[in-house]
């Protein structure tokens, strides 16, 4: 039984092999980019909008609301990164429904790559917001004794982020495969439905956790400033 | 008993034990978290959105311990490193 799309080789050139993970990932990226381009090409601000534009507006405004609620800051600067993570993971988890396709998030390589993106994004956003000294100082909070524990937590939560997504999606694939050999008639459909819920929730959780980590690294000087920021939010 | 049978036996046994024990803790923890969240929503229905979002994130954190156990069990069954080493040594 293949439990990882890394093991499925589509094209072997001897020195370089194309496995299903890479191929499906590029397929999803092409699909998302093409879809976004096709929809935004005929975008309009009239009262009648097409259903696809409606879909995108719901998606983007929902993401903005969630980011603003979690980070208590303006969502604009975080939306590209967190929104991309959410939409990519959601699209790839939902591909689980297409017969014969194993979602690329069911491979540890993909999820580790996504978690490394978050690992890099946390200091990038933190330094952009607080400056190098301000960002580094928060490793010393509440006392300098906590320094090694803060560093360990930074690393372990990256591992946890990767293994959580991988484990959830891989377990869905494996359980579907096992059930297909035991009770192939109705039961796998129910597990597929459960996998649909798991896929959406895991995409949401990955994006929200990434946002929580980024927000916790870039909100050292919150305190009295947060009130003025939330006023800006309601005004702008 | 040769080492092949021993490795197979211990791997399967350990995989079962891993997922069995590893499911107990998260199940109890998630039950407590959901019960608390439900009573909190019953007391403050206005805060349902915030409570639900925090609940989902918390449940994902709790559940990840069970997922680690599942991943270890899957490694023991499908990708056991000792098994691969043994079959390589046997020329398989």
Automatic annotation (TrEMBL), chain A:
Family (UniProt): Belongs to the ATPase A chain family.
One Pfam short name: ATP-synt_A
Subcellular location: Cell membrane; Membrane
Organismal lineage: Bacteria, Pseudomonadati, Pseudomonadota, Gammaproteobacteria, Chromatiales
Annotated transmembrane regions: 15-39, 78-102, 108-128, 165-187, 193-215
Membrane topology, record value: Multi-pass membrane protein
HAMAP family: ATP_synth_a_bact
SUPFAM superfamilies with a match to the protein in the record: F1F0 ATP synthase subunit A (SSF81336)
Function: Key component of the proton channel; it plays a direct role in the translocation of protons across the membrane.
Name of the protein this chain belongs to: ATP synthase subunit a
Keyword vocabulary terms for this entry: ATP synthesis, Cell membrane, CF(0), Hydrogen ion transport, Ion transport, Membrane, Transmembrane, Transmembrane helix, Transport
Automatic annotation (TrEMBL), chain B:
Signal peptide per UniProt: none
Gene3D superfamilies, per the entry: lithium bound rotor ring of v- atpase
Record's keyword terms, sorted: ATP synthesis, Cell membrane, CF(0), Hydrogen ion transport, Ion transport, Lipid-binding, Membrane, Transmembrane, Transmembrane helix, Transport
InterPro entries per record: Alt_ATP_synth_F0_Csu (IPR017708), ATP_synth_csu_bac/chlpt (IPR005953), ATP_synth_F0_csu (IPR000454), ATPase_proteolipid_c-like_dom (IPR002379), F/V-ATP_Csub_sf (IPR035921)
Pfam family, any one: ATP-synt_C
Sites annotated Reversibly protonated during proton transport: 63
CDD domains to which the protein is assigned, alphabetical: ATP-synt_Fo_c
Lipid bilayer topology: Multi-pass membrane protein
Subcellular location: Cell membrane; Membrane
Record field: transmembrane: 6-28, 55-79
V-ATPase proteolipid subunit C-like domain boundaries: 13-76
Main subcellular localisation: membrane
Family named by the database record: Belongs to the ATPase C chain family.
Function noted in UniProt: Key component of the F(0) channel; it plays a direct role in translocation across the membrane. A homomeric c-ring of between 10-14 subunits forms the central stalk rotor element with the F(1) delta and epsilon subunits. F(1)F(0) ATP synthase produces ATP from ADP in the presence of a proton or sodium gradient. F-type ATPases consist of two structural domains, F(1) containing the extramembraneous catalytic core and F(0) containing the membrane proton channel, linked together by a central stalk and a peripheral stalk. During catalysis, ATP synthesis in the catalytic domain of F(1) is coupled via a rotary mechanism of the central stalk subunits to proton translocation.
Protein name: ATP synthase subunit c
Source species of the chain: Spiribacter onubensis
Gene this chain is encoded by: atpE
